[in-house]
Amino acid sequence: MGGIQLCLAGASIGNGNRGVEALGRSVLDVIDTEAPGSRLSAFDDGWGVRPDNSGRYRRADVEFVGVRLSRRWHRSESWAQIRVAQRLGVLGNPAATRIAHADAVLDISGGDSFTDLYGRSRLRAVSAPKEAALRVGRPLVLLPQTYGPFDTPDGRQRAERLVRSAALAYARDAASYERLLELAGSAADFSRLRSGVDVAFALEPRRPMNGVVEQIEELTDGPIAGVNISGLLRDDAAVGRFGLAGNYISTMTDLVHALVDTGARVLLVPHVHVPGGGGESDVAAIEAVLARLPDGVSARITVVPAELDAAELKWCIGQCDWFVGSRMHATIGALSSRVPACGYAYSDKTRGVFETCGMGDHVVDARTVSGAAAVEAMTASFAIRADVKPKLDARVPKVVRQARGQMIDILADVRAWKSGRALGAIA
């Protein structure tokens, strides 16, 4: 079980998005356990090369390497500078050097960002590490993720080229697997196109410090309803951008009020935290909801600190009796903890992941329903939480094992490539 050299892209640990962090931590946890002696360079949007000082990884050497689309092309972190270094064969560039020496480049695209839904610039950034691996002939592994939608000819052509050039490609749900097969085309080696599950199902929860545990354990006078309110959907621009059916903040405010009216204690869980609370920060969305609620309702609400990491947030979510969220990885934190959950979704990706656990009926589409109708659908999910729990108890352990098993299979493939097994593109 010798060590291997890997690069991990599309799962930045420290950018404030706990869902993306959950992806990265889940991959690192398995590598540390299953591939002792390995070296993993995790790409993020920081500066320079930084060793991991968390103490979490005792058997693998983990470091973080800054990469980014940047107008400061002269910086070593710039993908333009990395591209030049690769073409000139100059290995002084940190990222270029690590890619050149890697036994494989693992890429997860933030779980759901391999699409042109978020614009051309985002797709360029997501494609950059994939293209960098292929440029120097390193095996590219597309970890379990969503593929598409691709609504522009350029976006689809780019996706087809990258998928067909990869060594392995996993989808994280059945719908994405069908789209992966379409992108790969009929000439593909279908043994290397695999249906998987979101790697975050394998994330190990960690008990938080700083009094958070005691705060949650004191919530004994009623069921705990966890609620994630997404900052991505909080302003009017989201209505046009994602085709929302109505005002998201008003709907979530009414939902929290309705849950409190049932006798529940509400635990608000931010899953994306932007410094200062602006932009897409869930903290700003939570504050917008709290500002609309009367004092009597607010007294039954507890807000989880935004500074907790993904594993700590998963522990908090695991204490709930039911959970609802619009950040998909917040709901994965619930499902993987066998907590009955509901997704208030703005894209098709959520239903695909919920169906992995047999929970497709517990997804409410924010593009078709809002206001009182959405609140009714979500509170109906809350009402049958006790009926849902046995289903999760039966199905989720298998999904968690699959999340770990697919990573173990990937590591076995990488070791085989390293030992000389012939390898080509998927198509």
TrEMBL record:
Signal peptide: none
Keyword Transferase carried by entry: yes
Ranges where the Polysaccharide pyruvyl transferase domain occurs: 76-347
UniProt GO molecular function: transferase activity
InterPro entries registered for this protein in UniProt: Polysacch_pyruvyl_Trfase
Source species, domain of life: Bacteria
Key words, A-Z: Transferase
Name of the protein this chain belongs to: Polysaccharide pyruvyl transferase family protein
Organism, as annotated: Phytoactinopolyspora halotolerans
